[in-house]
Amino acid sequence: MQVGFLTSPFGGETLEYVVEFASKAGFDALEVAAGPGSKHVDTANLTDAQADRIRQLFADHKLAISSLAWYSDAVKPDTREAQGKVFRQVVDAASKLGTDVVCTLAGMPVDGKDRFKTIAEDCKPAFSPLVKYAADKGIKVCLENWFATNIQSLPHFEAIFEAVPDANFGLNYDPSHLVHQEVDYLKAVDVFKDRIFHTHAKDTEIRYDQRAWIGVLNSGWWRYVVPGYGLINWGIYIARLKRAGYDGVLSIEHEDGALGREQGMEKGLAHLKQFA
């Protein structure tokens, strides 16, 4: 299993800088932030020549592109058409760059609807044509299960794959989003193993003393941390992924405010490499 990271925290740096850092630090792959105007992969203006240069850059540093990352909402009705156009650009860029995964979000609940109704009435018409477009180019579409989106918990996972059952539609599975909800992140691997095409490596710290004081309906009692600094048992979790047949990338999503950008990446890598 490989270890990589999402390049978004380096959004102000050139892709060359990020690749150089990742190579020297010992990473295997990068989940590259992409979209119109991105400094890493500008999907609105990516030429074949630029794509070739990016592919050569990664080859020279012995790194893989695990996915292109475009975390936006393609479900909201009033922006669906415009966002769908951008999504297709990201898929086209992934094809040019030789990666077969695009990571995105499941969208937010539509005003006046709960998650299940949004999935049935909005996610299905939004994602079905986009997933088909990606399939025609050999690309898998992966939804990060951020708890604020339409796939908050496991019944929502079930609902969205019932609504859009295409084989290339799956998860960029992030166990950290389940921990503070007290949802079994290991059970999710067993149940949705055929839908896990990419993974985020992020941990969750829970301040039980703070939670006992302010209650679960308030904020400030949990936070995201780099792997090894929270409650996830990475040895057991990675073993469960392997038994489920996943042999892809563990992509660190660094949102730990207690650690610097490069420092957090390096500490997360050191912890994951024990088990990957």
Overview of this protein structure:
With 276 residues, this protein is an alpha/beta fold. It has one domain: TIM Barrel. It has an eight-stranded parallel beta barrel. A two-stranded antiparallel sheet has the order 9-10. Helix 3 runs parallel beside helix 4 and helix 4 crosses helix 5. The radius of gyration is 18 Å and the shape is globular. The protein starts with a strand and ends with a helix. The model has no long low-confidence stretch (mean pLDDT 98).
Break the fold down into its secondary structure elements and pairings.
Layout: E1 2-6, H1 15-25, E2 29-35, E3 41-42, H2 48-60, E4 64-69, H3 80-97, E5 101-105, H4 115-136, E6 140-144, H5 154-163, E7 169-173, H6 176-179, H7 185-191, E8 196-201, E9 203-206, H8 208-214, E10 222-225, H9 234-243, E11 249-252, H10 261-272
Helix pairs in contact: 3-4, 4-5
How would you summarize what this structure contains?
With 276 residues, the chain is of the alpha/beta class. It is built from 10 helices and 11 strands. The radius of gyration is 18 Å and the shape is globular.
Structural class of the secondary structure composition?
alpha/beta
Please provide the ordered H/E string of secondary-structure elements: EHEEHEHEHEHEHHEEHEHEH
Number of E strands: 11
Can you tell me the CATH topology? Answer: TIM Barrel
Main pleated sheet: 8 strands, parallel, barrel
How are the strands of the largest sheet arranged?
1-2-4-5-6-7-8-11
Q: Please give the CATH architecture.
A: Alpha-Beta Barrel
Number of helices: 10
Low-confidence runs (pLDDT<50, min 5 residues)?
A: none
Which bin fits the share of residues in helices? 40-55%
Write down the oligomeric state: single chain
Overall shape: globular
What is the level 1 CATH name? Answer: Alpha Beta
